[in-house]
Specification:
By secondary structure, this protein is of the alpha/beta class. Helix content is about 50%, strand content about 15%. It is built from seven helices and five strands; from the N terminus they run αααββαβαβαβα. It has helices at about 5-15, 20-25, 30-45, 60-85, 105-115, 130-135, 170-175; strands at about 50, 55, 90-100, 120-125, 145. The strands form two sheets. Strands 4-3-5 form a three-stranded parallel sheet. Strands 1-2 form a two-stranded antiparallel ribbon. Helix 1 (about 5-15) packs across helix 2 (about 20-25) and helix 1 (about 5-15) crosses helix 4 (about 60-85).
Length: about 180
C-alpha cells in the first residue's frame, strides 16, 4: 500500500467529488481514480459507492478512512520527527483546538514549546469542545484545550495545564497586597 494512495482516498472522502479531490492532490482525475482502484484491489474491498460520480463510502470505506487518517497523521509525525532530529528541533505544525475562554492561557502552555522548537509552528484554532473532539477523532488537530467538567471528551488523555491553587498557607495569605476581593 502506498501512502500516496491513502492520501488520495482520504482526500476523496473529504471532498466527496473526484474532480475536486484530484485538484487538491495535484493529479489528474484518472490518476486519482486509478490509485483508489489499486487501493481497493490491494485490500480486496470496495471502498466507494460509485455511480456517475462519488455517492458515498461503503462501511468498509468508513473503516479505511478512520485508519487512513490515523496512518497519515503517524506518517506526518514520523517525517517531522526525523526532520527535526537532524535540525536540532522539531519542525512542522502543531495544531491545537482551544475553547475561546481558554485562549489567553494558550501562550503560557505554548511558550516552552516554541522556545525549545523555534522552527516549528503552532496553529491555534478557536473551537467548541465538541469541535475539538471531532478534530481529534479525525486527526485534524493534534491537541486541545477545553473544560472537561461540563462536556467530557471521549478517547483522549487529559492533562491538567497547570496545578490549581486550592488554598494558601496562612503566612502567604497575610503577605498579599490589600485590594478588592
Amino acid at each position: 500500500m502506498l501512502i500516496r494512495h491513502l492520501k488520495f482516498f482520504v482526500t476523496l472522502a473529504e471532498e466527496q467529488h473526484f474532480g475536486r479531490a484530484a485538484e487538491r492532490c495535484n493529479v489528474t482525475q484518472p490518476t486519482l481514480s486509478h490509485a483508489i482502484r489499486k487501493l481497493e484491489d490491494e485490500l480486496n474491498l470496495g471502498l466507494i459507492v460509485r455511480g456517475h460520480r462519488f455517492l458515498a463510502l461503503t462501511p468498509e470505506g468508513e473503516k479505511v478512512l478512520h485508519w487512513g487518517r490515523q496512518i497519515l497523521a503517524d506518517y506526518d509525525s514520523l517525517h517531522d520527527d526525523l526532520t527535526g532530529r537532524d535540525s536540532g528541533g522539531l519542525t512542522g505544525r502543531l495544531r491545537l483546538g482551544i475553547i475561546p475562554a481558554a485562549m489567553p492561557a494558550a501562550s503560557i502552555l505554548t511558550e516552552a514549546f516554541v522556545a525549545r522548537h523555534p522552527r516549528a509552528e503552532i496553529e491555534l484554532r478557536s473551537m467548541s469542545s465538541r469541535s475539538i473532539q471531532k478534530g481529534l477523532d479525525n486527526f485534524e488537530i493534534d491537541g486541545g484545550m477545553t473544560y472537561l467538567d461540563n462536556e467530557p471528551l471521549q478517547h483522549v488523555r487529559c492533562f491538567p495545564p497547570y496545578p490549581s491553587i486550592t488554598s494558601l498557607p496562612a503566612a502567604a495569605a497575610t503577605s498579599l497586597p490589600d485590594g478588592p476581593a
